[in-house]
Known about the structure:
single chain; 758 residues; mainly alpha; 34 helices; elongated
Amino acid sequence: QICNQHNAEAPNLEQTFHRMAQTEPNLDHDVSWFLLPSYWSKMVVALISFLCFANSYDGDFVFDDSEAIINNKDLRAETPLGDLWHHDFWGSKLSSNTSHKSYRPLTVLTFRINYLFAGGFYPVGFHVINIILHCTISVLMVDVFSILLGGLQFSNKGRRLNLAPKTSLLAALLFAVHPVHTECVAGIVGRADLLCALFFLLSFLGYCKAFRENKEGHNFSVFWVLVSVILGAVAMLCKEQGITILGLNAVFDALVINKLNVLELIQKLLHKDKSLENSGLLRKGLLFRITLLMSGGATILYIRWRIMGTGPPAFTEVDNPASFADSLFVRAINYNYYYSLNAWLLLCPWWLCFDWSMGCIPLIKSVSDWRIIALAALWFCLIGLICQALCSEDSHKRRILTLGLGFLIIPFLPASNLFFRVGFVIAERVIYLPSIGYCILFTYGFSLLSKQAKKKKILAVAVLGILLINVMRCALRSSQWRSEEQLFRSALSVCPLNAKVHYNVGKNLADKGNQSAAIKYYREAVRLNPKYVHAMNNLGNILKERNELQEAEELLSLAVQIQPDFAAAWMNLGIVQNSLRRFEEAEQSYWTAIKHRKKYPDCYYNLGRLYADLNRHIDALNAWRNATVLKPEHSLAWNNMIILLDNTGNLAQAEAVGREALELIPNDHSLMFSLANVLGKSQKYKESEALFLKAIKANPNAASYHGNLAVLYHRWGNLDLAKKHYEVSLKLDPMAPGTKENYNLLRRKLEQLQKKGG
C-alpha cells in the first residue's frame, strides 16, 4: 500500500502501488554495496558511530562547557526548575541586555539531570549521553534515508517498505562517521544539536506516519501531523534550528506525497493555467496540511518571541566581523564565502577548529581577492544541482535532488545571517543537520557513478576507503576534544591568525601555572587583535602578579578605554593602582567596576582591602560584608572581617562574625583557624583547641596552625603539648615569624621548671 495516488483516474491505491514499483527506478539496482537486513544495518551503523567517538567518553569539560555547565546555576538543585524557562542556554535572564537569546530549556534540563545523577560536575556521564544520542540519531538515519532515497511506500499491512536498503545504509554510515560532527558529540555543549536532531528526525518520521492508513489516495492522519508539529516544537526547545523541520515536512509532502513538479507548477501559476485547479493540490489535502504546519510554526515562533523579548541578541564585531561591515557588497561576498567554507567542511572535513572567529578568516574586501573563486565554485555547483532538480525529465532524480538540497539548505538558514546576525563566523556544530542533505547528494552521486562504471567494486572500495578515513579522523578529533590543551593547540595550525585561539592556549597555560609561556600567547593575541580586551585583562593580571605594574596598568587602562563597561578590567586596574599606592584612583576604579556590575563580590572584597590599608576600618568592614551578602561562601571576605575585628580588639564581634561564617562554610579550615585565635584570646581555651585541631586535621602542613596552637597551649599551661606543636611548626617552616622566639622562651621555662623540680 502506498500513501498517495498519482493518477486521479486510477481505480484504487493498490494498482497505483504496483505501477509505481515497476516504473520508478530503484536507486539500489546498480550500486555495489552491502545488502543487510534492516536490523543488521542499524546494528552496524550504531557500532561504527560508537567506535568513532568512544574515546571521548572520559574527556574533560572543555571550552564552552565551562560557561554552559560548570558556571550555569540552572543546573544546581537550589535553582527552581521554573527558572529554566526564563533563562538562556548560559543561565542568564533572557531579558538581560547581555543575553545571547539562545533559548534551549530542554537541553539545560538534561544537563541538570546529568548533574543530579552524577552528584556533581563529573564529565563522564555528560559525554556518555552525547555518544548514545549520536548513535541513536545515526540509527534513525537508516529509516530516514530509506524514505528520502527510496520513497514512502507501505505494504498492505501498513508496514513501511525500504526500497533502498543499500543506499540508505551507505548514507547513514556517511552521516555516522562524518568528522564535522565531532564538536557536537565530543563537546558536551553539542548536546543541544544532538537533541535537536533527535526530535527533528522523530518529527519527520511522525509526519510520514500520517500517510500509513491512506487507503483512498487522499486520506491522512491529522493526529500524526499535529504530533509532528509538537515534536518540531520540542526540537526547537533543544536548539533553534529545530523549527526548520516543519518547512522540510512541507517540502517532503509536496514532492513525495503529492509528486508535484515544481517547475511545471511555477509555469502554471505564471500563465494562470486553469488546469491548476484540477491538480492534486486541493484534492490530496496538501494545502490543508501545509496550513497546519505553518500555523503550528507561527504559533511556536510567536511564543518563542514573547519569551525571548523583542530585543535581538548582542554580538560584537569580533564574533562576526562580516555582519558589521558598512558595505552591503562586502557583507554579501563574505557571507557567501562562509557558505562555501561550510560546504568545504562537508566535502573535506580535514581542517577542523573549535572557533573560527577573530581573524581566522580575513574579510574579503575586493573582487580581486582570489578567494572569490570559492564563491563561484559554490554557486556553479548549486545552480547546476538546482537546474537538475527543477528541469530534469526524470521525476525520481528531481525528487532526490530537491530533497537533498532542501535538507542541506533549510536547516542551515538560521545560521546564514540572512534573517538575523549570528554570533559566529563558522560553527561546525550548526552543520550537523545540513549534513543529512550532503549525505543524500553524495549517495545519489555514487549511485549515478555506479550506473556508468564498468568496475563497480573499485568504486565501492573507494567509498569504503572514505568511510575508514573518516572513522580515523573522528577518533583523532575526538581525542583532541578530550582536554582543553589538546583542543586549543590543535587549532594553532588551522587558524594561526585567530586571536581567540592564542588567548585560549595562553589561558590554559596560565591555569597550569606556566605564566612565562602564557604571556607569549597573550601578547600574540593582542598583536593579532589590538582591541582584544579579555587578552589585555588576563595579560595585565599576570604582569601584576609578577610585579610588572607599569605595563599592567597600561594594558588595563587601554582595555577599559576600548570597553568602558568591562567591570573585571576596572577591578584589576584598581588592584594595580592600589599596589602603586595611588589609593584615590584605585577607589574610583573599584566603584566604576561596581557601577557596571552591581553584584560583584570580588570587587567589594578588594575595595575592603583598600580601606583596610587606609585604616578606614568601618568602610572596610562594610565592603567585606557586602561581598559576603552577594557571595555567602566568600571565605576571604569573612576571614578579613574576623582578623580586622580581632586586631582592633573587638573580640566579641569577631567571635560572632566567625561563628556566622562557619555556619555558612562549615569545612573552611582558614575560618576555623581565625576563630580559634579569637577564642584563645578570649580565654575560651577548650573551644579554641577543638577548632585548631579540626583545622590541622583539614590542613596538616600549615606551619602557622601548629604554631598558634602551640601559643594557645603555652598560655593554657599545657607546656608539653606546646613544645610538640612548636617543633612541628618549625619543622614545616623553620623561618616562621615569632615561632622560634616563642619556642626558645618555652624551652627556658621548661629548663627552669626542671631545675626547681630537681
